[in-house]
C-alpha cells in the first residue's frame, strides 16, 4: 500500500517495483456504468490469475476508483482473511478446486 499526496509518483513507483520483480500489474478500468457485479467479476479474474495461472500479480487500485463502499469492504476482507465472502458460486469453487487438484 502506497500513501502520499497526489502527483507524488506512487503509481509510477508501484509500476517500477512490479516491473523490477517481473510481476503482472492488474488494474481495473472504472467506467460510467461500472457496477458491483463488474467489480466482483474483475476480482474473480484477479484471483484466478494468482491461483490458476500462478502469476505474481500487483493489484493497482486508487482511491479515486472507489465507486461503492463495498469495494473497500471486499479489499479489507481479502487482506484480513484471504477471501471475499460469496465471491465465487459453489460450482465455481468446485471447478477451481478440481483444476488445482489436477496439477
TrEMBL record:
GO molecular function: dynein intermediate chain binding; dynein light intermediate chain binding
Protein name as it appears in the record: Dynein heavy chain AAA module D4 domain-containing protein
GO cellular component, one term: dynein complex
Superkingdom as given in the UniProt entry: Eukaryota
InterPro entries the record matches: DHC, Dynein_heavy_chain_D4_dom, P-loop_NTPase
Segments forming domain Dynein heavy chain AAA module D4: 1-101
Pfam families per record: AAA_8
Gene Ontology annotations of biological process type: microtubule-based movement
Amino acid at each position: 500500500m502506497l500513501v502520499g499526496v497526489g502527483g507524488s509518483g506512487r503509481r509510477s513507483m508501484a509500476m517500477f517495483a512490479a516491473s523490477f520483480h517481473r510481476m503482472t500489474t492488474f488494474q481495473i478500468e472504472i467506467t460510467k456504468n461500472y457496477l458491483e457485479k463488474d467489480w466482483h467479476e474483475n476480482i474473480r479474474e484477479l484471483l484466478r490469475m494468482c491461483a490458476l495461472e500462478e502469476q505474481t500479480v500487483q493489484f493497482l487500485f486508487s482511491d479515486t476508483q472507489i465507486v461503492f463502499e463495498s469495494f473497500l469492504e471486499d479489499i479489507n476482507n481479502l487482506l484480513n482473511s484471504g477471501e471475499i465472502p460469496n465471491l465465487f458460486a459453489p460450482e465455481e469453487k468446485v471447478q477451481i478446486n478440481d483444476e488445482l487438484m489436477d496439477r
